[in-house]
Amino acid sequence: MQAAVREFIRNRAKDRCEYCRIPQVAIDASLHVDHVIARQHVDQIDEDTEHLAMACDRCNFYKGTNLSTVDPEGGEIVPLFNPRQDRWETHFTFEGAAIIGLTPIGRATLRLLQMNALNRLELRSWLIEEGIL
Ligand SMILES: [Zn+2]
């Protein structure tokens, strides 16, 4: 991937994970360029920036190649949050250091990506205290 393309994606994401919103400055590992629809699901690898998003290593790992998962409340199969099509604020909100899922897509994505794992809650609490979040 060309450096200019990566830079465009990074700037569009405001240098933070487009799933859990952790800023690059708060984590050691570099943000990954995520294929919103994993390569194995399409015939042609689409490197168009409209199919790419920034993701932290944790969100990228837990998302894997998944396109959908189960809403923990309703039990229905729902698509994962798509940062290129969906507004974050429609599906998620912050309640202190915790991320809350507002919709089936938000709840299901939150659970699959383990956005409220204890270490992330502790990190976000610290970032809030420091005025970074
Ligand atoms: Zn993340």
Proportion in helices: 25-40%
Work out the strand percent.
15-25%
Strand order, biggest sheet?
Answer: 1-2
Largest sheet, strands/sense/barrel: 2 strands, antiparallel
Counting helices, strands and paired strands, the structural category is alpha+beta
The run of helices and strands is: HEEHEEHEEHH
Number of beta strands: 6
Distance between the termini: 30 Å
Radius of gyration: 15 Å
Description of the structure:
- The protein has helices spanning 3-12, 57-63, 88-91, 104-112, 118-129, and strands at 32-35, 52-55, 68-70, 77-79, 92-95, 98-101.
- The strands form three sheets. A two-stranded antiparallel sheet has the order 1-2.
- It contains five helices and six strands, in the order αββαββαββαα.
- The protein is globular, with a radius of gyration of 15 Å.
- Helix content is 32%, strand content 17%.
- The mean pLDDT is 94.
- It has one domain (3-129).
- By secondary structure, it is an alpha+beta fold.
- The structure holds zinc ion (ZN).
- Zinc ion (ZN) binds at residues 17, 19-20, 22, 55-56, 58-59.
List the helices and strands and how they pair.
Elements: H1 3-12, E1 32-35, E2 52-55, H2 57-63, E3 68-70, E4 77-79, H3 88-91, E5 92-95, E6 98-101, H4 104-112, H5 118-129
Antiparallel strand pairs: 1-2, 3-4, 5-6
The structure holds zinc ion.
